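User: Just a sanity check before I run the rest of the batch. Below are the structure tokens for the first item. I only need the designed sequence back.
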């Protein structure tokens, strides 16, 4: 049954995490993304705004099949990504990493992470990790697939199982696309084919007469279906030789080797794949669709390309496919930015590398050698062991016809975005910048292109200073903050900006930013908000962004003592005392908003008690709020409670008798939650049990 669904960020969700218990579902989407999930229909996921559309396809190895500049082409008639504009062939558009087998450039076999179209999805995985109007994250994984369609019958685009890759695409409505790429080597798949010799699968060699490099298979050998390629290495234990590189696969049972082998028949053999001939990193786009005979027909150039090391690649050599080469110095290994832009249309793309590719030794541009394909790419040429990669990039869609997308028509146009991405700097004036394995520095995660900050008491203030350390004056282009531990009712969120280093703030217009809401926590995570400014922090300036709550206050507190007794007797007669203190902020009033206390052991709430606002047991003074049960213990066992008004030291005391809290027995730690209205405060403490008594703190 076909399930065609347009997924938006407004699915209702109720936050149950300590913080705000949400009953609203709102976000600010000045520039929204829309995601259409058609995987059950045609294997695609479409992510778009009013200015661009990206289509991922399971049949393009999970990569990009279509890319449209909707500013210039609202009818989607000009697919910038796919050759022949028909969805039948493409090489990935914004990002693609390729692995080549073979023994020479003339005998190279290209396996691509974004190759399509394929008759089947194979091992490709295409899944949605996050989806809101502020950002979408998509996971693509699998094996690279053969480009030229010369695979075995029924499988013209086979997978290179030796390489396992994963690409996580994080897409923002401003055209930023953060890319987290990893590849690993599956050593189990490096064994390609083997035979035991004798009457089974075997090989033979004449060892003379001009055919010393030729071996023939027998006993069911089929080097095509086994996917044996030039560059693989073959050995024979019985023959006493190897490993020797395979120079050519002549047919299903015949190989030519790189060097001679002695005569032998019915020999055992083992073929392994342990070398790559070449790797390339590319931006791809369409080209001249009139080309029929590749590398020989005349063509019309439609694209240009360059890098930060050579802004326009124009060096020509006697290459039959009209490749233009990168000039040096500096060497290609120092390039961190590739740019590919159309000569005849508004579109342009950039690819910024967070880490330099230190083994790159060449750069190649082409838009006239192949039918309707163009590319700007770096390469690592020369036989080498397959490396494992963990690399981060920022791609950016550009259009000179757009209002939001930047114009990318040269390396100079792309440089501000590149400098912003590769020179992160931020200061947390309130809150804490995150750190850890996934964070590079200054709270910046190159994998999603965002600064990550943990809010302090539901407030985060982040200063973005273009004169910060290593920033070299680089502007911030539509900066992104990911807030953690931010548990605020949507209606109470306040977004402000400061132009004087965080001294004074003014409200940021809703037209100037995107911010996810509580409903989006189902996709981004509990207590997580994604914020993106739609403006620029210009060179030589600094701006601070403050995201906070105007609603119920925040209290950081410590349970100094928790005592419970009678915990080993039947439930219903336990006695509990909680005493703590902390620092309060904005006003709160349990006499109107109500009060709840919870004790949690592990993942189980072992006792809770609530008093409604307006209960006749409430009393208030200029110093504190008090409640006392009028006729004995409350239904939950609560007898008295007292909480000071917000101040430098807020004291809390709670007493209960005849409570039902059997789960306290055996607890080694407790989490204590206090809730007034929609705001929840949490602390934890360790516990020790002696007999039927529990002491914590």
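Assistant: Here's the designed sequence for the first item:
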């Amino acid at each position: 049954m076909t399930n065609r669904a347009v997924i938006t960020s407004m699915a209702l969700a109720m936050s149950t995490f300590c913080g705000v218990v949400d009953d609203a579902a709102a976000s600010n989407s000045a520039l929204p993304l829309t995601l259409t999930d058609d995987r059950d229909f045609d294997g695609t996921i479409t992510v778009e705004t009013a200015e661009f559309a990206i289509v991922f396809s399971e049949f393009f190895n999970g990569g990009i099949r279509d890319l449209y500049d909707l500013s210039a082409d609202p009818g989607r008639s000009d697919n910038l990504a796919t050759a022949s504009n028909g969805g039948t062939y493409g090489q990935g558009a914004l990002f693609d990493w390729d692995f080549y087998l073979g023994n020479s450039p003339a005998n190279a076999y290209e396996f691509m992470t974004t190759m399509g179209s394929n008759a089947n999805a194979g091992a490709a995985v295409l899944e949605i990790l996050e989806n809101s109007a502020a950002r979408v994250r998509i996971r693509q994984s699998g094996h690279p697939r053969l480009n030229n369609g010369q695979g075995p019958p029924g499988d013209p685009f086979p997978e290179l199982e030796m390489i396992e890759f994963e690409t996580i695409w994080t897409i923002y409505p401003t055209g930023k696309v953060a890319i987290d790429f990893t590849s690993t080597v599956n050593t189990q798949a490096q064994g390609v084919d083997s035979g035991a010799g004798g009457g089974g699968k075997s090989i033979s060699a004449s060892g003379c007469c001009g055919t010393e490099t030729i071996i023939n298979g027998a006993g069911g050998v089929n080097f095509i279906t086994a996917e044996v390629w030039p560059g693989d290495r073959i050995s024979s234990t019985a023959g006493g030789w190897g490993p020797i590189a395979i120079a050519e696969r002549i047919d299903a049972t015949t190989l030519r080797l790189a060097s001679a082998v002695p005569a032998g028949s019915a020999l055992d053999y083992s073929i392994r794949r342990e070398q790559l001939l070449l790797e390339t990193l590319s931006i791809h786009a369409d080209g001249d669709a009139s080309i029929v005979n590749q590398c020989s027909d005349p063509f019309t150039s439609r694209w240009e390309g360059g890098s930060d090391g050579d802004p326009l690649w124009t060096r020509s050599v006697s290459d039959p496919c009209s490749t233009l080469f990168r000039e040096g110095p500096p060497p290609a290994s120092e390039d961190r930015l590739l740019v590919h832009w159309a000569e005849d249309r508004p579109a342009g793309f950039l690819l910024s590398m967070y880490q330099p590719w230190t083994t790159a030794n060449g750069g190649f541009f082409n838009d006239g050698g192949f039918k309707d394909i163009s590319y700007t790419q770096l390469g690592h040429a020369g036989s080498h062991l397959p490396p494992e990669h963990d690399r981060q990039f920022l791609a950016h869609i550009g259009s000179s016809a757009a209002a939001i997308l930047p114009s990318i028509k040269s390396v100079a146009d792309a440089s501000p975005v590149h400098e912003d991405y590769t020179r992160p700097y931020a200061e947390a004036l309130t809150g804490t910048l995150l750190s850890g394995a996934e964070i590079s520095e200054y709270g910046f995660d190159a994998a999603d292109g965002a600064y990550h900050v943990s809010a302090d008491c539901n407030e985060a203030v982040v200063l973005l200073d273009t004169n910060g350390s290593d920033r070299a004056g680089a502007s911030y282009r539509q900066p992104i903050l990911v807030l953690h531990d931010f548990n605020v009712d949507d209606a109470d969120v306040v977004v402000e900006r400061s132009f004087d280093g965080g001294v004074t703030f003014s409200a940021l217009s809703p037209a100037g930013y995107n911010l996810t809401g509580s409903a989006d926590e189902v996709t981004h995570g509990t207590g997580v908000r994604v914020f993106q400014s739609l403006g620029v922090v210009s060179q030589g300036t600094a701006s601070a962004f403050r995201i906070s709550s105007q609603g119920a206050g925040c209290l950081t507190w410590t349970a100094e003592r928790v005592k419970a007794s009678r915990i080993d007797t039947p439930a219903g007669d336990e006695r509990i005392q909680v005493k703590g203190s902390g620092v309060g902020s904005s006003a709160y009033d349990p006499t109107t908003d109500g009060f709840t206390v919870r004790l949690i052991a592990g993942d189980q709430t072992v006792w809770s008690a609530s008093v409604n606002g307006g209960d006749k047991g409430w009393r208030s003074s200029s110093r504190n709020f008090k409640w006392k049960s009028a006729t004995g213990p409350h239904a939950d066992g609560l007898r008295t409670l007292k909480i000071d008004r917000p101040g430098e030291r807020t004291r809390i005391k709670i007493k209960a008798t005849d409570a039902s809290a059997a789960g306290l027995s055996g607890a080694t730690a407790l989490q204590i939650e206090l809730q007034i209205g929609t705001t929840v405060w949490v602390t934890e403490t360790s516990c020790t049990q002696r007999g039927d008594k529990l002491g914590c703190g």
